[in-house]
Amino acid sequence: MDHSGHGMTMDLPPFTLGRGLEWSADPFFLVACLVGLGLYGWGVVRLVRRGDKWPVGRTVAFVIGVLTIALMMCTRLNDYGMVMFSVHMVQHMVISMVSPILVLLGAPITLALRALPTAGRGRKGPRELLLMFLHSRYMRIITHPAFTIPLFIASLYGLYFTPLFDTLMGSKPGHIGMMVHFFAVGLVFFWPIMGVDPGPHRPGYLMRMLELFAGMPFHAFFGIALMMASEPMVGTFENPPASLGIEALSDQNAAGGIAWAFSEIPSVLVLLALLFQWYASDQRQARRKDRAADRDGDKELEAYNAYLASLNTQGR
Fold first, then answer.
1. CB atoms near residue 215 (< 10 Å)
2. How many whole angstroms separate alpha carbon 55 and alpha carbon 16?
3. Whether 128 contacts 119, CB under 8 Å
4. How far is CA 193 from CA 60, 80, 145, 155, in A?
5. How far is CA 236 from the centre of its chain?
6. pLDDT digit string (tens) for 24-49?
7. 43-75, pLDDT tens digit by residue?
8. Beta strands per DSSP E along the chain
9. What is the C-alpha to C-alpha distance for residues 159 and 156, in angstroms, rounded to an integer?
10. DSSP bridge partners of 4
11. What pTM was estimated for this model as a whole?
């Protein structure tokens, strides 16, 4: 197989799922995934050793999230994605809309804050620096919907419908940077909406749902635009290798269908997570009120009953 510089394969056989899932690791993403899993595992082990609990579900979500990135970037899906618009679109959708959701459900920042040691009075260690970063003006800006929603939209239209996409696909660093960008955009978009970790922008649950549905339709419109196009719209995929046995326009139509369909998947996942978090929040609030009532003899109820009694007395 001939790899030209940044992994473009000009003699790939026709795509099948079996061929796409063969091992073909991108070194950058392989190392990044292993480091991410290693650091997360270190945090969980550190908590367990000191007797703290960490939800198994969060660990499972994080691991699956990282593995979805490895699946997209460390198999021949990445090779086929360099020459097939449809396969590239699967990579884009998974890395920007599935992997971030699963990683966020793993609450890696919460784990880091609990696992990292405090630096001591007057000193700043990794934990203190992380807290400063979380509470910085920069974080307030990049997690605000006025920033995240336009960025989410621009990552589609501003990339694929301009020469920027072809430029990035023309080099290995550009391709890596583009995939990292997809993942980062997904993180900052979904974090304020359904992330478990603390953040500077955390609106009410109804507003979070509105933020979710404000961005999702643009993915569907993007997919429809690709499906309705009468000619190839992205230069990189205008002339697929003859060995693939595909036609550029039909492959672009397939890519549009994938983008359109994927707009529904994260919407359902995030909506379910939001509803569960909303229910859990209400339950916690109810338990706090019950404990407060137990401590003070339910003074709030007594005061209300006294108020009703006074009204009854005044009405006589």
1. 21
2. 38
3. yes
4. 20, 33, 9, 18
5. 26
6. 999 999 999 999 999 999 999 999 99
7. 999 999 998 999 999 999 999 999 999 999 999
8. 3-4, 8-9
9. 5
10. 8
11. 0.81
